[in-house]
Amino acid sequence: MAYETIIVEVEDHVCLIKLNRPDALNALNAQLMSELAKAASEAQENEKVRCIVLTGSEKAFAAGADIKMMSSKSFADVFSEDLFTPETDAIGRVRKPIIAAVAGYALGGGCELAMMCDFIIAADTAKFGQPEVNLGVMAGIGGTQRLTRLIGKSKAMDMNLTGRFMDAEEAERSGLVSRVVPAKKLMDEAMGAAQKIAEKSLISTMAIKESVNRSYETTLREGLLFERRVFHSLFATEDQKEGMAAFAEKREPQFRDR
Ligand code: CAA
């Protein structure tokens, strides 16, 4: 499908989605969010795709929701249209792993979009922030919720209340990002991680994603039970037999997602 605000490429089982509104630092307007939601759903449906990488440009992953699009809206407008909800729900429904590769600004909705992904690999140029407070509003798609779970209350309060930016080194130290690499190496690192994931059984990687995400939504006791039962259920797959046989036979496994 042809898109105007994103570029989508599928190669070697990895779907690369690049946000592409360079004149607006990839600000998230209605068209971009809708195209992104469609591309994410298509990647979920596409049997060739086993992992997704979401990225922006060297200067900006995304500088937030499009302020010019939102400025004239009223409460009734955003409430009735449920601004950003259908699109973020669509991204949340993707069961295949999604990596955010972030260089430059990831602010407001941009930081929140990165946090919707399963993990974030950052360039050393990355800057994260929830500066909505400077606009007389607050974060609206996860900046007070996911950020708090990722970096804790004190830092999340600091980021949301002051609107300050966090550099890549602090983001890694705080647990917001999983790795920081020199900017030139960002895409190699993210695509390399995606390739590694794409080599595994898709049943395993989707089960792992579901299980880790469960930890956000339940007690430890329930989460451990959920994990154990999913672990047990993987013994019903051919990929479990293949993976364990390959280990014993000292060869690479040939997973078939069954
Ligand atoms: N919305 C719309 N346009 C944006 C934008 C945004 N969030 N961020 C940048 N742009 C546009 C600028 O208006 C500018 O366009 P023009 O050339 O037409 O004037 C262009 O992108 C380049 O931006 P700057 O000239 O400002 O670039 P800079 O390098 O001087 O500054 C920046 C970069 C610090 C990121 C600055 O652009 C900035 O502060 N942007 C806004 C960040 C922000 O407040 N984000 C939160 C948005 S609200 C939100 O996201 C709500 C939510 O939770 C869902």
UniProtKB/TrEMBL annotation:
MF terms in GO: enoyl-CoA hydratase activity
Enzyme's top EC category: lyase
GO terms, biological process: fatty acid beta-oxidation
Top-rank taxon: Bacteria
Signal peptide: none
Xref: InterPro entries: ClpP/crotonase-like_dom_sf, Enoyl-CoA_hyd/isom_CS, Enoyl-CoA_hydra/iso, Enoyl-CoA_hydra_C
Catalytic activity: a (3S)-3-hydroxyacyl-CoA = a (2E)-enoyl-CoA + H2O; a 4-saturated-(3S)-3-hydroxyacyl-CoA = a (3E)-enoyl-CoA + H2O
UniProt entry tagged with the keyword Lyase: yes
EC nos: 4.2.1.17
Record Pfam families: ECH_1
Alphabetical keyword list: Fatty acid metabolism, Lipid metabolism, Lyase
Role of this protein: Could possibly oxidize fatty acids using specific components.
Family: Belongs to the enoyl-CoA hydratase/isomerase family.
NCBIfam families listed in its UniProt record: PRK05862.1
The protein's name: enoyl-CoA hydratase
